[in-house]
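Quick question: what would this complex look like in 3D?
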Amino acid sequence: MDRIILGVLNGISFGSILFLLGSGLSLILGVMGILNLTHGALYMIAAYVGWTLAIQCKLNFWLAVLGGGLAASLLGFLIERGFLRRLYKQMNEQVLVTFGFVHLLTNLTLWTWGTTLRAPYTSPFLSTSIPIMGWSYPISRVSIILIGLVLAAVLWWLQEKTRIGAMIRAGMDNKQMTMGLGVNVDKVSGAVFLFGSFMAGFAGVIGSQILGPHLEMGIDILLMSLIVVVVGGMGSVQGALLGGMLIGLIDALGKIFFPEMAMFTMYLAMMIILLVRPHGLLGRKE
Amino acid sequence: MEGPRQGRLLRALPYVGTAFILAVLPLVLSQYLQSMMTKFFIFAIFAMSLDLIFGYVGLISMGHAAFFGIAGYTCGILIVKYGIESFWIAAPCGILMAGLLAAVFGVFAFRVSGIYFLLVTFALGELLYSAATKWYSMTGGSYGLGGIPPPNLGLTWLEWDATSFYYFAFIVLAVCFFLLYRFIHSPFGHALQGIREHEARMECLGYDVWFYKYVAFVISALFAGVAGVLFGHFNGLIAPMHLGIATSALGMLMVIIGSAGTLFGPVIGAGVIIFVEHYAGILTPARWPLIIGAVFIISVLYFRAGIGVYLSKIWKRL
Amino acid sequence: MEALRVEGLTKRFGGVQALQEISFSVEQGERLAIIGPNGAGKTTLFNVINGQFPASAGRLFFLGQEITTVPTHDRASLGLARTFQLTSLFLNLTVLDNILLALHGTRPSRFQFFRSVHSYPPLLQKADELLGILELREMKGVPVKSLSYGEQRKLEIALSLASNPKMLLLDEPGNGLTTAESTVLVKMIRNFASDLTLLIVAHDMDLVFSVADRIIVLHYGKMIAEGNREAIQADPNVKEIYLGIEEPAQDA
């Protein structure tokens, strides 16, 4: 029973990370029609940058988080402006180009930081644990859950209650019409990409508290984020949150009960959702 | 267009010529290069199979390697785990397995289209990837299924070396090319192109579009399976990566670079990719993913139409 | 013999009633025109008759046989053909290949997967005849996207005639044609076989009046008038909704 509770907590904290990534991915896909496979690589690079800032330069952890986020958004910006702009709605080409970038970026990361494994890192403030059910549970994980929930609330508010949110949702439903109404959809798209990339970077450093930076994390987390977006639904904050939590829980509980089958189950869920309800559980219907 | 005799001979010329050159090439190539050419032949079949559904029908699949891999695994497992000796039993089983997978998957997959189809084919590949990685007892897990011997064709005089593999793969490629060529130019194949151009119109003309897509999908899976079976024997090893996005994306890149919808184009595309992969691997082993990544990016952005189209234009001018 | 009977046909898209309780019948060989302002549901009606949209309610009968749930491609095999408002040709294929696709469409040869599509002499001959009638013979080997708009519209009609249909749905055939081209179109329609049943959706009243035996007027998905030319011209309902009846509508 204790294991289950801890498993659930682990699932929720990992789910928060997935939510952060998934919402960026989902937004970018919904608003710009771009399937951004580099999202995972940005996550990874931010984790390494954060490590450099926090451990090598001994900066404050939160500065490292910021640094990672900025690095990710800068890279994302360059990739989007330089390359992805020209491929609106050309799904196949996007996949190939972003896939190419994954190879490129992973190799660059390898080049810069080498293959030594790095341990998870966090702020000294968060490195203690609190007792839960007789077990010592890391505060860092709790902080992740809290951050995730706060951001979910903020993003949801942005999506539903602000003008910017309305513009974005309109842009998702009908680009032409929104442009006709005088909204500069291009600028909005660019901003969305920037923001989504920042979130990926942010998640990358925050997530490094659980899992230290390593070279496979880009692809691993990307695949899971993709599942999150599909299952939870494209284009909505609530979808990413639901998807993130579901997948996080499957992953954590899967590790306890059926460790061999966790990934398999996730892909199966993804396929079933795609075939039965393509726009996901809470996605915007196209 | 069926013109006079000369027209037909003229059109066959590049194919016959290339075939001839490829047939005599082993006389001048080292064993090592012959091996590389063999790999090229195998992936040419894979690329052509993908071209069938992507270039001709217009379906975007990011999971085609699922059929490649499952055929290779099935054939390999039958030989290594179950002691089936004859190529003539193991290989068709592998190929049929690929077709079966497509037949079952296709029933559901065609309910969705566009990006959802892309995602669901992707999910198939990854699903099989994770299954292969975990099912250690059957598939050797993430180390892959090794120890696959060269094909036992029942020919006692045949000794397997680089040259024999070369000709074996070459013959299979030639047969596959011929079959696919006839298929493309048949009324059925033509209908596939019509579907790519305007589905609704085809329905109104009397074509059951779903049926055509489904059959094309299964056939392309069968040919991907042929490549997979060959690869298993040639490489001696089949690994989970041969089921997943890495191999699928590579195949897609070959088709796009070579020109989708031309059949011979993807063959060229396969050659280009195999050679780049090879030489980058030799010259800068640490940096080769970077190079292959750059190749992906540059070719998709700047060589979108593909080499095949470019070559056809040159040929027409001659 | 009735070629087509439509009973209580209704089509809903979510909350929108595109067609409401449409009922009419068409005799074999009759030329029926369907007119109405933009958005009246004319193309939707065609889409339902054709099978591309399933009806929400009502029944359809073609040559005495119920086709309400029969899929589009089977309706084509029964002898129902249509053209599209927006040219829907196979742009990257040649003119000849377009015609051949249309010819094979209702023949068992469409399942052939080994013989070359160009190796059916009787079909090549039929293609040649069709191209001759439409004066497109010289364009045989040209990819359709290089054709002029008028030539494409001609090809559009050629494709639907290829299967020797018993009933043809012409959706705005005169769309975008010059006056000269329209005159040619009218002549062509007049020369169609007399046992070919025609349903025409059109905005061009000259075309409608020169070709149609009977006219149906749609408005917001409902049938508001039916009759021959004189009856329609005299109908007060029609006049009310259709001011400016002589101007062909400019489509976006």
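Answer marked as accepted. Residues 32-243 of chain B form one domain.
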